[in-house]
Amino acid sequence: MSQYFIISYLQIFCIATVIFGQQLILRACCNGTENCREYNQPEEMFGVACCGNEPMNQFESICCENVTRSRRQGNTFIDKCCGNQTLAYDQTCCQGVVHNIPNGECCGSVAFSRTNAKALCCDGSLSLNAELGSACCGTIPFDGGIRESCCAGQVYLKDIYDGCCPVPDSIPQSYNPYNSKRQICCDQPILKIGNNKCCYLRNSNGTFAPKSFDYNTSCCAYPYIEITPKTNNACVSSTPNH
C-alpha cells in the first residue's frame, strides 16, 4: 500500500511516496509531473528550484534565461548571468554577449577596455582608433569642429560645409549642409549672391517659417502669408481679410 504527500512551493511541487517495506522516494517536479528529479534523502532537496521546466540545485547551478548552467568554472564561482550564458568576474556582459574583458565598457553588444583612450562609442558603433578629442557625428568620429563639421550624421571639411540647415516641417527632422560664407540657410541653402532670397512666412499658428523665392519675379510682402508674383515688375502689399 502506498501513501502520497504533495507539497507546493513556488514553481516546485514535491511528491513524497512512501511504500511500506521499501525506500522513501522524493521527487522535485517543475510545471507538471513530467520533468522530475528523484532524491534519496530530504536534505538533498535543500536549494532545489526550477529553471524553466527542469529542477536544479541553486548552490551547484545557476539559471540563465531558463537554461541551467554550472556555477563552477575551474576555481571560479559564478553568480551572474549574461543572456543564457554565465558571467565571470573578469568578463563583461554587453546586451547578452559575453566578452573576455574585465570591467569593460559596452558599445551596443561590443565591449572595450576602459583604458583605451582612443576608443569612442558613437550611437552603438565602436571605433578603437579615434583621435584624442574626437566627438561623435551620428555613428562616425570627427575632430569636434576644428577642421571638420557634422551635419545629419555626415562629416564634412569645414572649408566646404561649415553649417547645418534644417529642412522645415521634415519628419523626422532632416538637414542640409551649407557654407555660411557663400550661402544662407532658408528652407534650403541659397547663395548670398544670386536671384534667390529668403522670406519668413507667417503660419496659421502665428509662427514664421523660411521660404526661398526668386526676387526677380516674386515678392515677399506684408502680410507675409505667401510668396506673390510681381505686378508690373513691382511688389504690392495687401491687407489680409478679417
UniProtKB/TrEMBL annotation:
Q: Does the keyword Signal apply?
A: yes
Keywords assigned: Signal
Give start-end of the signal peptide. 1-21
Pfam families in the cross-refs: Galaxin_repeat
InterPro entries given in the database record: Galaxin_dom (IPR056601)
Ranges for domain Galaxin-like repeats? 49-165
UniProt-recorded name of the protein: Galaxin-like repeats domain-containing protein
* Organism, scientific name: Panagrolaimus superbus
